[in-house]
Amino acid sequence: MTATILYTPAVEKRTLSLPLRLALASTDTPGALLDGAWWPRSRDLAAELPALTAALDPLWGRITHVTVNPTLWPVIPRKVPVDGHVVRVGWFKAEQDPHKLLLLSYTVGRWDLLVIPPQTDPAIAAWLMTAATGPLRSHTASDLLERAEFQRIVTEADQAREEVWDSEGGHGPRATAPARSA
């Protein structure tokens, strides 16, 4: 797998009318593997990163660098302009979980976000955001995605069994018993 790295000296400013899908964990859990979850609408880093880093700058200090694993990102720009500054983007294939985004700030530190795939069902995405921001946060990003996939499969199997049950005469409309008169 090769990563495509583009140098874009000037990218037009894009305004998104849709709200940012981001959940951040409390900072009172030392040693947690994740600091939150981000659910981008696409795999276009140049379009998605400006809104994310602009939202995080006031909370975590100016984000200066972002790293990703190129496995799931088709194009990785070297730089992304964000509200008056530039965020440098790098990648690590073997060293970084493919479902994690690493954000760096010179002044404050480092944060790790679970990246929820854009096509994820909203119910599963909500579960992932809760799991990534819960008090324990002891699972890796890939582990959470595997658990979510297992949950999706179990839910679909349960729905299929219920549909078969209904088609074979189970769960029909329940008639209420007439009230007895005294």
UniProtKB/TrEMBL annotation:
Highest taxon above the source species: Bacteria
Source organism: Streptomyces natalensis ATCC 27448
Region Disordered, annotated ranges: 162-182
InterPro entries for this protein: DUF5994
UniProt name for this protein: Uncharacterized protein
Basic and acidic residues composition-biased segments: 162-171
Lineage: Bacteria, Bacillati, Actinomycetota, Actinomycetes, Kitasatosporales
